[in-house]
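Researcher: Let's do a round of design. I'm pasting the structure tokens now; please hold your answer until I've finished.
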């Protein structure tokens, strides 16, 4: 059972783990042990997730999300399988916690009159500076 929040928990049956050989340093032993973990969670058909959280998760542009709505997390940071397994589960929980709070809607605002005047005054100043740089070629 993976606890996300007070109201959301994921049962073990929804998490699919696959163990792989990790790349990187480790000597000859790394070629024989499968310490890396690939954790798969089917967001699309999970009964444990509320609909609005599922929609937010699927709407995120995340490279770890497959076209079928499966979230794939690979953990190979540590040398032993148990720590990588815990790391993958914690990262899955963090991804889901990231969409628990709905994003605030942006309220459209207009620039103030003073801000518009400052912007235009700045543009006029830049124009004057550039005019002083130029030479009058017609007098030569």
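Researcher: That's everything. Go ahead.
Model: Designed sequence:
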């Amino acid at each position: 059972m993976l606890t996300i929040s007070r109201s959301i928990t994921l049962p073990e049956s929804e998490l699919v783990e696959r163990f792989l050989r990790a790349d990187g340093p480790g000597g000859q032993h790394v070629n024989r042990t499968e310490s890396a973990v690939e954790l798969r969670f089917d967001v699309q058909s999970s009964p444990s997730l509320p609909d609005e959280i599922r929609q937010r998760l699927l709407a995120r542009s995340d490279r770890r999300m497959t076209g079928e709505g499966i979230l794939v997390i690979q953990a190979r940071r540590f040398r032993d399988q148990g720590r990588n397994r815990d790391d993958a589960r914690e990262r899955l929980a963090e991804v889901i916690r990231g969409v628990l709070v709905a994003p605030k809607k942006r309220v459209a605002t207009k620039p103030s009159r003073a801000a518009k005047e400052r912007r235009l005054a700045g543009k006029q100043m830049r124009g004057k500076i550039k005019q002083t740089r130029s030479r009058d070629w017609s007098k030569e």
